[in-house]
Amino acid sequence: MVKNIMILRFTNQIFGSCWDRDHISNVQITFKEKIGTEGRGGYFDEFGIMRDVMQNHLFQILSLIAMESPASLNAEDIRNAKVDVLRRIPPVVESEVLLGQYGKSEDGSLPSYLDDETVPKGSKTATFAAAAFHINNPRWEGVPFVLKCGKALDQQKVEIRIQFKDMGSNLFQKDVAARNELVIRVQPEEAVYLKMTQKLPGLGMETVMSELDLSYASRFTNLSVPDAYENLILDAIMGEQSNFVRSDELDEAWRIFTPVLHKIDRGQVPVEVYPYGSRGPKQLAEFVGLFGFERHLQAYSWPETSQAAAASAASASASADSKL
């Protein structure tokens, strides 16, 4: 699915024409794990979640989402384009970072990070991190990229969520016209879907959030999607280097992260405790809201939406409007 980003961007006019600050409000790249350190805390504690996941895996995705079209499909041209966009990103600042460490689950059945016997007593190492990045170029000026990653969360997934701007002057009020979102689900259940507002079937004019959905499992029934490492091992055998980090790309990534990592190591960035199995620190919704992300009030469940649930949500929204 990560390899599909370039094809999605550079072969589809519908996306190429709106892939910029004029149309996109914000980009969220999320990496969630349901499990904790599971006895590997001694190793993990030396690095923390930002070094372990964000600085490398998520930044690879960010560079593919944000880069300009490379001169060709040659590996060096692709890596040149990735490095160029990283050079436009200033170092992340501590005020735009949210850190967390998982505690016990709310029912007490699942252990905290500090319960791992391999973790040093009183460790402040983060198992969750969210951070905002800004790209200073004409395409992305003013569009925050929010990267989130963590362990012991509510679900296992990796996804890219591109949220488009509001329609502006509109016949329909904002509470019934949700923002469009292009979602690229990397794992599990690989999919690409575009969230949009539709009329709810029936005689009224209630709206419902639906999607144009490309789910790989249902669309490509006679094919298996290779594991990520299968792809990389084959690339290594074939000498295909575009999916591997070049030294100058690595230098740029560390330039962006190193100042705040030093502050984290010195304990200058607070670490909030969150329950095992939750969505992360309680401040997360407020944090992503600071960078323009809006979660709509209408009920939505991918890949299915119950008509009864949608009608109930529309009714509740109308009731709330009448009270205002």
TrEMBL record:
Top EC class of this enzyme: oxidoreductase
Keyword Oxidoreductase: yes
EC number: 1.1.1.49
Top-level division of the source organism's lineage: Eukaryota
Protein's pathway: Carbohydrate degradation; pentose phosphate pathway; D-ribulose 5-phosphate from D-glucose 6-phosphate (oxidative stage): step 1/3
Span of domain Glucose-6-phosphate dehydrogenase C-terminal: 6-288
InterPro entries recorded: G6P_DH, G6P_DH_C
Keywords of this entry: Carbohydrate metabolism, NADP, Oxidoreductase
Protein's UniProt name: Glucose-6-phosphate 1-dehydrogenase
Native species: Linnemannia gamsii
